[in-house]
Automatic annotation (TrEMBL):
This is 4-O-methyl-glucuronoyl methylesterase-like domain-containing protein. InterPro entries: AB_hydrolase_fold (IPR029058), GCE-like_dom (IPR054579). It comes from the Bacteria. The keyword Signal applies. The keyword Hydrolase applies.
């Protein structure tokens, strides 16, 4: 049995103090401290056009800090025919907004290396619109370049910072901050309900979605897809072939607070672990997704983190993925979403964000957003919730 840092709570009234302690610990030891004083300073609509099932807007979002401003292009799709404001899914993309759709009207990013529509399989806009959700995305490099030595070029350059500070925020913190600024911007888009916002991310951007949701309680739902080490996977689960703190901080030193590298090969000494990061989303909805062949992201470690985080949800009389009296030793059935307000699924295949992952994520969002009184999304496309672990 894994020995994990305790969540140390049994009642909801204990959560505000414990939540603050955990946020402080993750800022200090893992992601770095997000500075105060940032904002979304302006939103310019550069053009709106009809698409099948809705319309698409191309926005320039100006984000600001004490030292200046930066423009981030944001692509927004909004469904037509809703009876009221609709939920919005917010996520960053890896190669430019133009790669998420083959549509010729979408601006091609300057110095783009990837062709138009090349990543469209990861952004099934038609199905998302059909399900009753708006979706907004921006290229992550427009927020923070994903390479060491570029902190001053991105949004971190909008803030005073000491490069030698072991608790200074890294690129994951910057991307998480950017998700919040996009939420600020889409709150001004007609037809969108900002109180029904979903943060989603794949891989390193799944880490960012989790950290954004942990800090920013405006996100009603958080979705992590194959986020692995530094995301949903337990550091203390030593699965075969999984990424470690030593590997991730060697390959990507700019992602985290500098002090995080000090826990390389010392996972058991880290004061926090992934189940506590997941618990920071409670009582809001959280869905964690894995892939069977994605050993680097440690699917079993991700699932076990949801089980270990379940007591935080249970303290609010909500359901997680834990089953009383069972000690999980293997993954749930492939393709079935298990749990309730905190849920999980694993699919076949490797490291990717698929249309099936989107379907599972939106299924997880549907119920909680309906409970919050948002415009009811279209009926779920996959009836995948386990009856053994109902909501």
């Amino acid at each position: 049995m894994l020995e994990l840092p305790a969540l140390s709570l049994t009642q909801p009234d204990e959560w505000p103090e414990r939540r603050g302690e955990l946020l402080e610990a993750f800022a200090r030891h893992v992601y770095g401290r997000t500075p105060a004083g940032g904002s979304t300073a302006g939103v310019e609509d550069r053009g709106t056009e009809a698409v099948r099932g809705g319309h698409r807007s191309d926005l320039d979002v100006t984000v600001a800090g004490p030292l200046g401003e930066r423009v981030v292009p944001v692509l927004v799709h909004v469904p037509e025919g809703a009876t009221g404001p609709v939920p919005v899914v917010i996520g960053l993309n890896f190669a430019g907004n133009h790669t998420t759709t083959p549509a010729p009207g979408v601006r091609i990013r300057r110095n783009a290396e990837t062709e138009r529509g090349a990543r469209a399989s990861r952004w099934p806009y038609g199905e998302i619109l059909r399900r009753g959700y708006a979706v907004a995305t921006a290229h992550y490099d427009d927020i923070e370049v994903d390479a060491p030595g570029h902190a001053s070029d991105g949004v971190r350059g909008l803030f005073l910072r000491d490069p030698a500070d072991p608790e200074g925020w890294g690129a994951i913190g910057a991307w998480a901050w950017g998700l919040g600024r996009i939420l600020d911007a889409v709150a001004e888009v007609p037809g969108i309900d900002p109180a029904a916002a979903v943060a989603i991310g794949h891989s390193r951007l799944g880490k960012a979605a989790l950290w954004a949701g942990a800090q920013d309680e405006r996100f009603a739902v958080v979705v992590s897809n194959d986020s692995g080490c530094g995301g949903a996977a337990l550091h203390r689960h030593h699965g075969p072939g999984k990424e470690t703190i030593a590997a991730i901080t060697t390959n990507f030193p700019h992602w985290f607070a500098p002090g995080f590298a000090g826990y390389a090969d010392r996972e058991d000494d880290l004061p926090v672990d992934a189940h506590q990061l997941l618990a920071l989303i409670a009582p809001r909805a959280l869905h964690v997704a894995s892939a069977v062949e994605d050993a680097w992201a440690d699917p079993l470690g991700e699932y076990l983190a949801t089980v270990a985080a379940s007591p935080a949800y249970e303290s609010f009389a909500l359901t997680g993925t834990r089953v009383e009296g069972e000690e999980p030793v293997s993954l749930p059935t492939v393709g079935r979403r298990v749990g309730g307000r905190l849920s999980y699924h694993v699919r076949s295949g490797g490291h990717d964000l698929t249309a099936g992952d989107w379907g599972q994520a939106l299924d997880a969002a549907d119920r909680v957003l309906a409970e919050r009184g948002s415009t009811a999304p279209v009926a779920s496309a996959t009836a995948a919730t386990s009856t053994r672990r109902g909501a």
